[in-house]
Amino acid sequence: MKVIFKILLASLAIFSGCKPSPGADVLINQKASLPESFKLSELHQKVITSFINNRKHTTSILYGNNQAYAAANGGTSIRSSGQSFTLVTWQQQDDAHWFGARIPGDLISAETLHLADSCSRIIYHYQKFKGKELAKLADTTGNAARVKFILSQQASIMP
Amino acid sequence: MKKFMFIAASAIIIVLISLQFFRPEISHPPVTGDLQAPTNVKAILVRACYDCHSNQTNLRWYDQVQPVYWQVAEHVRQGRKGLNFSNWDKLSPMDRKGKLWEAVNQIEQGAMPIKSYAFVHTDAKVSKQDLEVLKNYLIGMVHETPDDTAKIHARNKQLQAKTNQTQQNLPESLNGITYIPDYNNWQVISTSDRFDNGTMRVIYGNDVAVKAVKEHHINPWPNGTIFAKAAWDKLEDKQGNVTTGAFKQVEFMIKDNVKYRTTNGWGFARFKTPKLKPYGKDGMFTTECINCHKPMKDNDFVFTFPIKN
């Protein structure tokens, strides 16, 4: 009797595919997560657009505060003080849950851009943060091109 | 004791024999247009899928013994409903592609062929090599065209329409879920580059979802969690830069394990194009959602690996 019971139990385990559910540590995309210190979610910026670079296999999201979002969606290139942007870029990785999709992998960088007014001129405050810990980058080479690049992005069509 | 065992065994045998006379029907409707694929690809699909996903069901003697036959008949009925390679001609080229990618994903995630079926029909098992053959076939179907004029035109058309768009009442999906316009104020929990169907997506999560990710309480996700997944055409230029093209759709998943008990605790909705046309012919469109999400049953039916912001 005991043997029968054991066989039944074993077959039940086989058929129900008895394995523990994956925990949050496996399911959360740790590689792509931003360090807590960056506090991106507390900025409450909106997605202006997202883009991919098929040569570098990177994926990016451009966020903006309400003023930046409104300007980008208005289709105007009017730049005024108070507009704030954040551009986050990841290396892509294959999606383990869907063959046919690539999702964010290692965090590459975050870039912030604030537009401020000084003596009736717009000043562009740009800062780049690099790597998993988003360390502040002191090197300012190429900053002007990045500012231009961020400001040239068109908003995604939203209903 | 011995006598009791004898009576019990006889009763079971009598019941089993009488059960053989109750037989659900498994029909064999005509094949209107069979799947066309390279021989090696087709051979794998025929072997692993066709018993339930075509009109060419090949029953072995052991499939026809009751009470197993009931289960077999139900598998065939459900299988054909979800995907039928014998009526391949009835699908649009895009739907055919979509079905194939979904099928291969179901195999890769171990959801198909159904475990109990593969246990008995050992020849239906898809080996690692078989899976590679299927995946290579699909990869061969991916064509990313730079400066795709049709896609550029579709985007421009939507942009023009946007300027004279008037605010309308919020649309409702066929299972009674009202469109949630607020999602573009939510945080992003991931993006997805869907090279299988040429779209790119942003997955938003409401406050409940974002908090759940921060606190690592995502399996199961708490009630009140809502995801919104917005999709656009991928527009690629000659330098490999891909930007968002025409807006395709937004999909919602709303967690409420009481209200949406019958759909695994999630309320599903999909609104197509900037006009937000509710998806499906009737409320039963959710069967499609459930079937596709089934391989994720150990992850509370969620595909997305959320990012902490």
UniProtKB/TrEMBL annotation, chain A:
The organism's place on the tree of life at top rank: Bacteria
The protein, known as: Lipoprotein
Organism of this sequence: Mucilaginibacter galii
From TrEMBL, chain B:
InterPro entries cross-referenced by the UniProt entry: Cytochrome_P460 (IPR032033), Cytochrome_P460_sp (IPR038142), Haem-bd (IPR025992)
Pfam family, one: Cytochrome_P460
CDD domains: cyt_P460_Mc-like
UniProt xrefs under Gene3D superfamilies: Cytochrome P460 (3.50.70.20)
Signal peptide segment: none
Domain Haem-binding: 13-142
Record protein name field: Haem-binding domain-containing protein
